[in-house]
């Protein structure tokens, strides 16, 4: 099996930040058209027969897998009622958690993410800049070079994933629409910020979009954890990990929602108290 394609370091003099983000988005949309077509038609990838269910999500999680650029990819797809309620989340909550500070929020609800470093970023270079794609209008949100560290079960060492992560949102959807994509690709680097971690490779594409009364969340990923763990063993574990992420996020979001409600109530009580002072 060929390795996961690696992006060239973004600090090279060749592509601008905007053209780099455009390339990432173009590749991501091509992959998603096979893994999870927007029109809801059957994907060309192999579907698992039964969807998975978790206690913190009313939505079933559909899994599929297929080859892309010589690597084995796994995709999950779920549709969540657009509501700020338990076992689901609103579009506004999805945007807040995944469109801004994506890795920070991911660390908050993913136990295996033990740390990350922002090595470089080009937010001002790409934010709100139009991206040239045929038949669709997109604009940049952010572009970052990161090192993300995941723990593995002992006695395995943590894994370090140097990645380039780009986020873009679609702007031709109308008032009731909404769509954004997060693209994460491995980069070839000579540095390693986490000395005890084993270098590894990780690629992922996530798509969030409003579809009628629901929010559709799609993620496709491929990874190689490095070290001595055989690739086929890693491939067997990926579907379960990918599907479980939905449950982890919705559980975390429910707790965040309760904290926000408590903070709003405390602020309201303080305001009422100040208003009654003489």
UniProtKB/TrEMBL annotation:
InterPro entries: DUF3074 (IPR024500). Residues 73-252 form the DUF3074 domain. It comes from the Eukaryota. It holds the Pfam family DUF3074. Residues 36-59 are annotated as: Disordered. PANTHER family: DUF3074 DOMAIN-CONTAINING PROTEIN, EXPRESSED PROTEIN. This is DUF3074 domain-containing protein.
């Amino acid at each position: 099996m060929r390795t996961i394609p690696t992006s060239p370091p973004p600090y090279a003099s060749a592509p601008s930040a905007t053209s780099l983000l455009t390339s990432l988005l173009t590749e991501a949309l091509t992959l998603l058209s096979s893994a999870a077509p927007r029109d809801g038609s059957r994907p060309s990838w192999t579907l698992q027969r039964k969807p998975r269910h978790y206690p913190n999500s009313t939505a079933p999680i559909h899994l599929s897998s297929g080859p892309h650029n010589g690597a084995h990819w796994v995709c999950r797809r779920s549709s969540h009622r657009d509501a700020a309620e338990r076992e689901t989340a609103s579009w506004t909550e999805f945007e807040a958690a995944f469109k801004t500070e994506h890795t920070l929020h991911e660390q908050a609800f993913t136990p295996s993410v033990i740390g990350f470093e922002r090595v470089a970023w080009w937010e001002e270079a790409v934010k709100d800049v139009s991206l040239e794609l045929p038949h669709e209008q997109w604009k940049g949100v952010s572009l970052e070079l990161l090192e993300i560290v995941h723990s593995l079960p002992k006695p395995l060492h943590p894994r370090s994933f140097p990645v380039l992560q780009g986020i873009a949102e679609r702007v031709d959807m109308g008032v009731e629409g909404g769509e954004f994509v997060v693209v994460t690709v491995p980069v070839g680097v000579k540095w390693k910020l986490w000395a005890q971690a084993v270098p590894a490779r990780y690629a992922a594409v996530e798509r969030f979009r409003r579809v009628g009364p629901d929010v559709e969340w799609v993620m496709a990923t491929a990874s190689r954890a490095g070290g001595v763990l055989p690739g086929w063993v890693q491939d067997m574990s990926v579907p379960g990990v990918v599907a479980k992420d939905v449950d982890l996020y919705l559980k975390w979001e429910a707790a965040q929602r309760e904290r926000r409600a408590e903070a709003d109530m405390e602020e309201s009580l303080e305001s009422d108290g100040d208003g009654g002072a003489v």
